[in-house]
């Protein structure tokens, strides 16, 4: 693996860094307090091609490889994880999955809109009764002539109230377990689909997270994406790449925490000297720096495997597991460096810790990542 960035990769990273410094970082604290990112950011992200990375240009995408995608995702995560998550879901979980599994009509209909930021996507897998055990979901889609009629409830759906389309997973037929699950592209203005914003989140407060309720939602059969019964494989393939994106966002959080801690340690004086001169403070900073490098390298390795067409799922679980735990550790260390000032939201590190915390929970908890890695190594499923 070549660890030097190409000119294109370095340029897209610079573009993302400049964009985040100008359009995201100055507003992140206010969006967090208001529990609302300014939605106009989505069109701006689309205009720069950040919502079309790795999507083929013929469908409105901006091309690029997965390392470029990770570099942009890291920069967004460094600025505001709420904004990073909007992109990771609309592009990473929805558009990229439509590009991989959609038929020609679905790709032509949704991809140009999603990549331009004219439409937003959300990913509807989790339900009130099934989180880690997603293959046992209860939402049902019943064939009725040329339509499917869908009933069920989806929980914790990122972009839920903003989205124009939900990539929805529902049970078709009577096959139990994950083999009976199918994927659908459901426009969110379809009658019978209602959405409720979930308020009071610990972190990612700027993001629209919602509960979706589907009551006799009727969609034409062409809303089915991929073969009937293939939905769980589609969801898992989306999440494998999604974990790379979460890992990259976590590298951004960890880097932001490190940068803030180094800056503050140089400025803050106690006992007549900058706190940076104390060995125990340097230990906090040094541990963060090792975490940042290790998390970034694990993430880049996934991108490299994806771009070379190699198997990447286990590497993605390792990167997501390590980077998410590292982001929490780094944000927590940064808060320690800031002392009491880290505990109030005039300073950025408290938000980094709150935002980091969910990364060990969604797209598969840390325990689930360990079970995936353990299964790959032993050949035995412990689920
Ligand atoms: P549970 O599955 O009930 O787990 C509870 C605890 O039990 C965890 O510690 C877990 O690790 C542990 N556990 C469960 N099974 C095992 C096992 N076999 N072995 C060991 N430990 C186990 N979902 C979507 O579909 N789309 C989204 O866009 C989305 N966005 C989200 C945004 C936020 C802010 C949050 C909080 C969640 C989001 N989710 C989304 C849902 C998320 O993926 C789930 O919360 C996650 O998969 C965990 O499921 P759960 O919350 O039901 O926890």
Automatic annotation (TrEMBL):
Keywords on record: FAD, Flavoprotein, Oxidoreductase
Boundaries of every Acyl-CoA dehydrogenase/oxidase N-terminal domain copy: 6-118
Record keyword Oxidoreductase present: yes
All copies of domain Acyl-CoA oxidase/dehydrogenase middle, residue ranges: 122-217
Residues in Acyl-CoA dehydrogenase/oxidase C-terminal domain copies: 229-377
One term of GO molecular function: acyl-CoA dehydrogenase activity
Flavoprotein recorded as keyword: yes
Cofactor(s) it depends on: FAD
UniProt cross-references to PANTHER family, sorted A to Z: ACYL-COA DEHYDROGENASE, ISOVALERYL-COA DEHYDROGENASE, MITOCHONDRIAL-RELATED
Family under the similarity heading: Belongs to the acyl-CoA dehydrogenase family.
Protein name: Acyl-CoA dehydrogenase
Species classification: Bacteria, Bacillati, Actinomycetota, Actinomycetes, Kitasatosporales
